[in-house]
């Protein structure tokens, strides 16, 4: 028995130290950062990052804007007031907003004396709620800048109103179909102009028009 234990101890003394849980030396691998020319994920400084161009500007099409925070403060204020009237479901509130302007908006090819009554009579439901819904869909779409940088600068919704209808992408058509039907689109494309509602707000926040037709 003692001889057997002695042999076992001798064998154990010949086993390498690493087998008894000794610390194994490791090699640290250092990764060298590539030069800026090689690092394709490198983000340029914020001050040199250009603002993405509006949709359509690179192809000669009218630039389409989506960022409502880029609107002049007065235009943002009017847009917010219109949306508040829509959310309240109050055509009277919308009528009061438009009547309160120094320059009344164009709502029809004929003279409109009572704005609220006209909006109600123009609405399929007779209460003006359909018109509010149309205005909501229009304001959700992108917008165009007409005569930018001039005293006549106007922001127009939806952008389809002044965009080549036969050059809309599938994504743009999908957005457009929230406002009109496919049948309306085919008619307008053949006619050569947008004939549904459009909204124009001057840079000072005045609603210039909210009208349907060419």
Elements, N to C (H/E): HHHHHEEHHEE
Enumerate how many helices there are, as a single number: 7
Q: Could you list the spans in which at least 5 consecutive residues all have pLDDT below 50?
A: 1-52
Q: What fraction of the residues are assigned to beta strands by DSSP?
A: 5-15%
Question: What is the SS-derived class?
Answer: alpha+beta
- Calculate the mean pLDDT score and round it: 81
What is the CA–CA distance across the termini? Answer: 111 Å
Radius of gyration from CA coordinates: 34 Å
> Strands of the biggest beta sheet: in what spatial order?
1-2-3-4
Shape: globular
What's the count of strands?
4
Biggest sheet features: 4 strands, antiparallel
Helix content: 25-40%
Characterise the protein shown here.
It is built from 7 helices and 4 strands. It is of the alpha+beta class. Strands 1-2-3-4 form a 4-stranded antiparallel β-sheet. Mean pLDDT is 81; it is low at 1-52. The radius of gyration is 34 Å and the shape is globular. It has a domain at 68-211. Strand 1 (144-146) and strand 2 (154-157) form a beta hairpin. Helix 3 (91-99) packs across helix 4.
